[in-house]
Write a structure and sequence with these properties.
145 residues, two-stranded antiparallel sheet, 8% helix, flat
């Protein structure tokens, strides 16, 4: 992975075998970014797509492998009051299954680059968005306090 900052925005190029989410978190930690939003495109070799099931409070995971065209990845990075980093990421992929073109999308826990990914990271300016755990749903939400 390589990245540069132009103005307030960071631009990251991720290379073969880089795991996109861990790279984004690494950039934020290295640069002291406590909250940010990000988006990007690329080509991936694997993805763990999750769907949250409210009744169980658990995620169901689908594993995809092969040539996955990363149509869009969008998400955010926030920290809790102890400085622990969290991400909330969604992505859309297209891929071939035999002669059929298919798509898959959802919450992403991990995705690995096949040939490249280009990610724009936009730090929050003028404040910090924290993460607040919600016991009722078992998930975290933005905290503006």
């Amino acid at each position: 992975m390589e990245y540069r900052q132009f103005g307030n925005t960071l631009y990251a190029r991720m290379d073969r075998c880089d795991e996109i989410i861990s790279c984004i978190l690494d950039v934020c930690k290295k640069e002291g970014i406590q909250s940010a939003v990000f988006s990007g495109i690329g080509g991936c070799s694997s993805a763990e797509i999750q769907t949250f099931i409210p009744e169980t409070g658990e995620f169901e995971t689908q594993h995809l492998t092969g040539m996955l065209e990363l149509i869009a990845i969008n998400g955010n990075v926030v920290t809790d009051r102890d400085g622990k980093y969290f991400h909330h990421t969604h992505a859309v992929y297209s891929y071939k299954d035999g002669e059929e073109h298919k798509m898959a999308a959802g919450h992403i826990s991990a995705t690995t680059v096949l040939y490249t990914a280009e990610i724009e990271i936009r730090p929050v300016t003028g404040g910090v968005i924290r993460r607040k755990y919600d016991e009722e749903t078992g998930t975290g939400f933005w905290d503006f306090d």
